[in-house]
Specification:
This protein is an alpha+beta fold and about 150 residues long. It contains 2 helices and 10 strands; from the N terminus they run αββββββββββα. The protein is globular.
């Protein structure tokens, strides 16, 4: 009888370990290029789908010469699949290319603490990050690559 319970406990443990390890590699972001309605100061972007390994943050970073720059907006995400996540961004400093990045909520729960402890989530050893383009009728978006090319 004791061996029977040990076998059941072993199977349950194996299932839990499989669930945890599967959970660590499925983080992802799906976002499309979009137009942003803005009042010249703030606007909203919508991320189609985010899969988060635990509670976290969907963070929008500005484009700094082709790399993620400063944070211009963030929104909380739940563990698992989140659809149509709206993030309010500061359009007065936004570039025409932005980066959606998935961060962990590793510090105080429900408080965005960047750059630490709410660091980026990874999937397969890579940071979960997706670039996308925006346009806005009521805001002037920066293109730092074009600006730097014109300065030389």
């Amino acid at each position: 009888m004791k061996i029977h319970w040990l076998a059941i406990a072993g199977v349950l443990l194996a299932c839990c370990i499989g669930f945890v390890s599967a959970q660590t590699d499925n983080a992802s972001i799906t976002v499309t290029d979009q137009a942003v309605e803005s009042d010249g100061v703030v606007g909203n972007v919508t991320v189609n789908e985010t899969v988060s390994n635990g509670t976290g943050w969907l963070v929008i970073h500005n484009n700094l010469f082709g790399h993620p720059g400063g944070v211009i907006g963030y929104a909380p995400v739940e563990s698992g699949v989140n659809t149509n996540v709206t993030v309010t961004i500061h359009t007065f400093v936004a570039a025409d290319t932005l980066f959606a990045v998935l961060h962990q909520d590793a510090g105080r729960e429900g408080v965005f603490e960047y750059p630490v402890p709410d660091v980026e989530q990874t999937a397969g050893g890579e940071i979960v990050i997706v670039p996308f383009n925006i346009t806005a009728e009521d805001a002037a978006l920066m293109n730092l690559t074009a600006i730097s090319s014109n300065a030389t």
